[in-house]
Amino acid sequence: MKKQTDLHVVSDGGASRAATAPEMPGCVVAGAGEPIVLLHSSLSSKSQWSELATRLAARFRVIALDLCGYGDNPMPAALRPFSLDDEVRLVADRLDRLVPPHVRVHIVGHSYGGLVGLRFAERCRGRVASLALYEPVAFRVLPSGDAGYAEAKRVAETVRQLVTAGLRMQAAEIFVDFWSGAGSYGRFPRPARVAIARNIGKVPFDFEAAMSWPDAEAVRSIAVPTMLLTGDHSPAVAQQIVNHLSRLLPKRYVGRIDAGHMGPVTAPHLVNPWFEAFVDMCVERDIAPVADPPVPPLTPYASAAD
Question: Fewer CB within 10 Å, N side or C side of the chain?
């Protein structure tokens, strides 16, 4: 996987330029305008968002962050429990240095990054203007007896055991095939398989964090406009999570895309226009607010049924 250190942006005038973040690890900033924070999936990094960042930076200030243990950030300490709040603290620290405290941010998140975005919105109320999430891994919204939830817990424990035993390639295969289908890991070229296995050590921490939050009341308290995207070819558990979240979030919009769980990476041409259109809608509504506005339908997206 190529490590990205900057983002090339085309300005309104058509001139190419590069923008980088202030000196801090795990962060790239491009463009100017309302801030949009991009949070990547497990086994990825800020460079996942290269295409979307370039697309948005002509009109927004794009902040692409590495989560704990990915990209330029060190692995968490193994001697203490790890939680989503560790990720939230990292995100908050970066934003405190980049965005004035009175300025709200739009958050785009994928998978584990989507879950971090939800937790950030719940913990840092008043700091978030909107959430645009592709299949956040909020396992805890599923019923305790749900088959998909049970399978995710089994995969989490298997990956943890294999990583502990030093069997990183096997752990990576279990994890990738769970989300992308049997045989997916084996179809990658060997250099890609090795790169994935090199980062698999953070995945047990991600599962630990994802299995501890949220409950239904926490989700109901997140009152910002939220778009939930799911893929037609994603695992059933990912689609079920989106379905349950759509029943809990008070201001939600739901869309389906002809892609799998890794849609933001494998099909950005399909996914990115949804992110962009949703943020545009939220910005436009903020500029011209009305008293007690109803939640409008998201054309061409369908709002979730109650």
Answer: C
Task: Answer whether residue 192 is part of any domain.
Answer: no
Query: What is the CATH number for 17?
Result: 3.40.50.1820
Domains contained in the chain, number: 1
Nearest CA to 106 out of 192, 13, 227 is that of 227
Query: Which of 14-23, 73-82, 89-98, 214-223 has the weakest average pLDDT?
Result: 14-23
Kindly calculate the radius of gyration of the chain based on its CA atoms and give it in whole angstroms: 18
C-alpha–C-alpha distance, residues 305 and 299, integer Å: 15
Counting every residue, how long is the chain?
A: 306
Token pair belonging to 275: 């992110």
